[in-house]
Design brief:
Layout: E1 5-7, E2 17-19, E3 33-35, H1 39-46, E4 53-55, H2 93-131, H3 135-154, E5 159-163, H4 172-190, H5 195-206, H6 217-221, H7 228-234, H8 237-248, H9 252-260, H10 281-296, H11 306-315, H12 323-333, E6 341-344, E7 349-356, E8 364-367, E9 378-381, E10 390-394, H13 401-407, E11 415-419, H14 425-428
Antiparallel strand pairs: 1-4, 2-3, 2-4, 5-7, 5-11, 6-7, 6-10, 7-8, 8-9
Helix pairs in contact: 2-3, 2-4, 3-4, 3-5, 4-5, 4-10, 5-9, 5-10, 8-9, 9-10, 10-11
Length: about 425
């Protein structure tokens, strides 16, 4: 392992890659390591009051190490020209305080979303279990849940979609139902559905798999490879669920969405191989978000990242779905939805944790930095760091163990929402 290289601040130069051995709170830059790009950044680095600053000659862009650098001459190899790396702009101390406050507000919003999601999961669990014995009470509880979520969504012009943490719960089916309901409501709002239509979509999403309760556990849980006969039986859950919905007093619109949520626009779906406008709007919404959630959280197959899920839906399954709705889902979740692992233009690795539906291309990221404890990891808002961009998506399985442990990619990708404006509140204060 090569020894670290240190240089006096006065000998720093534009083009050097610096590594600040400081807490993120002890300097005003977006990252602890970056290529120096301007005289302002040089001035800010020199004003930190450090005797020496570490540099990495292998990551500098077309530079040589100055003579004063404490490094043996044998290691002064020519550095191949690399693609320019974006550098964080130097900011003032007051800007740094705003950045810290912005992080606090975002962490608080995520924590609140976690709490609200936990309450919602309990409500979905109770509604689903009661549906078989006390359908009236179950429907009342589901309606109350969806009304609350829909009112919150309609009451905010901007919605922040948050990635939730893994809780190690065994309630997979209820998390799936809630995830589908939340995404269906977010997509429904983006499609400008009115409150009545949103209510039907949300309730249908909560109960879209209720017919599974009538199937044998082996088929319902899909814990092993199913036989052809068992696959055919599994597909019966749509008709079973629609019948249960009508019998319990749910509206015809809700029952229709439950019946059709596995139909495809090209006629390749089930149970009735409907196509195009034969499939109701609510069913088309649920079909998209249900498939997305199954790709991210499959029962048997290996999960893909949210970025890969959207890419697969566009590349392989586009004919199945309403094109306008699929495009709108990308608009609200972004090209890199929460849960995606990405490489930044700075070379850093990060995980997308939140997306503002009004600015989906500038998400919030949890950034890997070996110098910062995991509990204090940087949350970078790309909206506030215009010099940084996402270069590409990464597969979670390709991450080095330390990075994987630090970012902790979710085994279950689950979402909830918050007020998108709250993350901007510190900008206005």
């Amino acid at each position: 392992m090569e020894e670290p290289v240190f240089v006096e601040p006065a000998r720093l130069a534009i083009g050097m890659f610096v590594v600040l051995d400081l807490s993120w709170l002890e300097h005003p830059f977006s990252f602890n390591s970056f290529v120096i790009r301007s005289e302002d950044e040089l001035a800010t680095l020199r004003a930190l009051g450090l005797e020496k600053i570490r540099i990495d000659p292998s990551r500098g862009t077309g530079i040589t190490v100055p003579a004063a650098v404490e490094k043996p001459p044998a290691l002064l190899a020519a550095v191949p020209e690399a693609a320019p790396e974006a550098a964080p702009a130097a900011v003032t101390r007051s800007d740094q305080e705003l950045r810290i406050e912005h992080n606090r507000v975002l962490r608080s919003s995520i924590a609140n979303a976690e709490k609200q999601a936990a309450i919602a999961v309990r409500s979905v669990r109770q509604s689903t279990r009661q549906f078989l014995v006390e359908p009236g009470q179950a429907i009342e509880q589901a309606n109350a849940l969806i009304t609350g979520i829909a009112e919150s969504l309609l009451g905010n012009s901007e919605v922040m979609v948050h990635l939730l943490g893994d809780k190690g719960s065994d309630d997979e089916v209820y998390h799936h139902s809630l995830n589908v309901a939340v995404l269906a409501l977010i997509l429904g709002k983006a499609m400008e559905l009115d409150s009545e239509a949103l209510q039907s979509v949300g309730v249908a999403a909560v109960f879209h798999d209720v017919g599974m309760a009538e199937l044998p556990s082996r088929v319902r849980l899909q814990s092993e490879n199913l036989t052809q006969a068992e696959e055919a039986l599994l597909r019966k859950h749509c008709e079973l669920g629609a019948g249960m919905a009508l019998h319990s007093g749910l509206s015809k619109a809700v029952a229709c969405a439950i019946l059709q949520h596995h139909e495809h626009l090209d006629g390749s779906g089930y149970p009735n191989r409907l196509s195009g406008e034969q499939i109701g709007r609510a069913a088309r919404i649920i079909a998209i978000v249900n498939h997305y959630d199954h790709l991210c959280n499959p029962a048997k197959a290996a999960a893909v990242t949210p970025y890969e899920a959207l890419s697969t839906m566009f590349a392989r399954n586009r004919s199945w779905f309403d094109a306008a709705m699929l495009t709108k889902l990308v608009h609200v979740l972004g090209v890199y939805p929460p849960g995606s692992i990405v490489q930044l233009s700075s070379g850093d690795t990060a995980m997308v944790i939140s997306v503002n539906s009004a600015r989906p291309l500038r998400p919030m990221l949890l950034v890997y930095d070996a110098l910062i404890p995991k509990a204090e990891a940087i949350i970078l808002d790309l909206e506030q760091a215009p010099q940084i961009s996402i270069s590409k998506a990464l597969r979670a399985g390709s991450l080095p163990p330390p990075v994987n442990e630090y970012l902790s990619p979710r085994k279950r990708v689950a979402y909830f929402f918050g007020d998108g404006a709250c993350a901007d509140s510190d900008k206005e204060s």
